[in-house]
Amino acid sequence: MSVVNKIKLPNNTTVDINDARDVVIGDGVENVVALTADDYDDLGTKDSSTVYVITDDTSVAENVSNKVTSISNSSTNTQYPSAKCVYDEVVTRPKYYLCADETEYNGISTKDSSTLYLIPKT
């Protein structure tokens, strides 16, 4: 288990956890990211929808320089995708439908533009 001492908000306000009775993450927050203080300082622009948790435990800290928002054939094993990136990849991939033959394909009255129809070569 990691002990978190403070939470740093994107406006550079720091909340000392020891002084807080409760820590409540608001509805407008999309991400909570654990970082070391050095990694937080190295970030350029801070996202206003992210709460940055500053911790001394580097095993739970996220290396945000390896987080990517899209994947491709040039992606590396060091990189990892954001949740939205994974969602976007899953929902934008075409569905596959294997037709028995061209007659079956022609019999489909409404063809979905996000579906790849596979017709075996005869």
Structure overview:
The protein is α/β, with parallel strands linked by helices and about 120 residues long. About 20% of the residues lie in helices and about 25% in strands.
**Structural class per helix/strand content?**
alpha/beta
Count of runs of 4 or more consecutive helical residues: 3
- Give the low-pLDDT segments: none
Mean pLDDT: 75
Total count of strands: 8
Radius of gyration of CA atoms, rounded to a whole number? 23 Å
Which quaternary structure do these chains form?
single chain
Series of secondary-structure elements, N-terminal to C-terminal: EEEHEEEHEHE
Straight-line N-to-C gap = 61 Å
Shape by Cα distribution = elongated
Provide the β-strand percentage band.
25-35%
Give the key terms.
122 residues; alpha/beta; two-stranded parallel ribbon; 3 helices; elongated
Topology:
Layout (H helix, E strand, L loop, with lengths): L3 E5 L5 E3 L14 E5 L1 H6 L7 E6 L11 E2 L11 E2 L1 H10 L2 E4 L3 H6 L7 E4 L4
Parallel strand pairs: 3-4, 5-6, 7-8
Antiparallel strand pairs: 1-2, 1-4
Outline:
With 122 residues, the protein is an alpha/beta fold. The protein has helices at 37-42, 83-92, 102-107; strands at residues 4-8, 14-16, 31-35, 50-55, 67-68, 80-81, 95-98, 115-118. It has 3 helices and 8 strands, in the order βββαβββαβαβ.
